[in-house]
Amino acid sequence: MKRVLLIALAAALTMGAATEKAAAQKFELGARVGVGSQDMDMEFAGLQDAKARLGWNLAAVSRIRIIGFGDGLLGAGLFFQPEVVYSQSNIKGKMPVSIPEVVGATVGSGGNISTKIRIQTVDVPLMLSLKVSLIRVQAGPVFNLMNNFGGDWQWEQPLRSPVGYAVGASVDLGPLVIDGRYHGDFKKMEFKGQDWQGIKSQFSSWSVGVGIMF
């Protein structure tokens, strides 16, 4: 009888430890840092030779396993992945000297002014990711929380679409994650200022980053 009780106790402890480990694997927290570019159509405003410059982004990431089995090379599953992403980048170009909104820019040849627009955003992607072995494909809506457009150019802040989308893929290498994605808005940005009334522009971005999950 004692042997049976000991075996039952050992089995219960083993199952408990396995259940605790499985529960812990269902929820993960992590962080990601990356490089990327944010771009929009600026030709409408007289900005010539506009080029999006490389910027950076920082993200807090969580991951919840909805269904799945295993881990590593033999793992597969469907995951819900909410994130909070801060991004910053620049767009550089040239504008005619006659445009009064440019302040503190540098006058170049041909009567043009070299100017820079700084873009800062905070977005909340709610991604669904499908994992097979080490590869994940992901897609989901992106909710825009904050935008700040500044730099040399003094202009009205545009109104971005509150909801966009993101698609991408990633590779899991143990706790490390290599991630790449594209983000677009469903609607064009709108300018509400008196001098910009009715003007619209499409906003998009891409990024590549490395993260770690705990």
Tell me about this structure.
This protein is mainly β. It has 1 helix and 12 strands, in the order H-E-E-E-E-E-E-E-E-E-E-E-E. The strands form 2 sheets. An 8-stranded antiparallel barrel has the order 1-3-4-6-7-8-9-12. The protein has a two-stranded antiparallel sheet with strand order 10-11. The chain starts with a helix and ends with a strand. Mean pLDDT is 79; it is low at 4-9 and 11-24.
Distance between the termini: 43 Å
In N-to-C order, the SSE pattern is: HEEEEEEEEEEEE
Class by alpha and beta content? mainly beta
Q: What is the tally of beta strands?
A: 12
CATH topology: Porin
Total number of distinct structural domains: 1
Uncertain stretches of 5 or more adjacent residues: 4-9, 11-24
The level 1 CATH classification is Mainly Beta
Q: What is Rg?
A: 24 Å
State the helicity in percent bands. Answer: 10-25%
Which CATH-level-2 architecture? Beta Barrel
Q: Trace the largest sheet across and list its strands.
A: 1-3-4-6-7-8-9-12
What is the beta-strand fraction?
over 45%
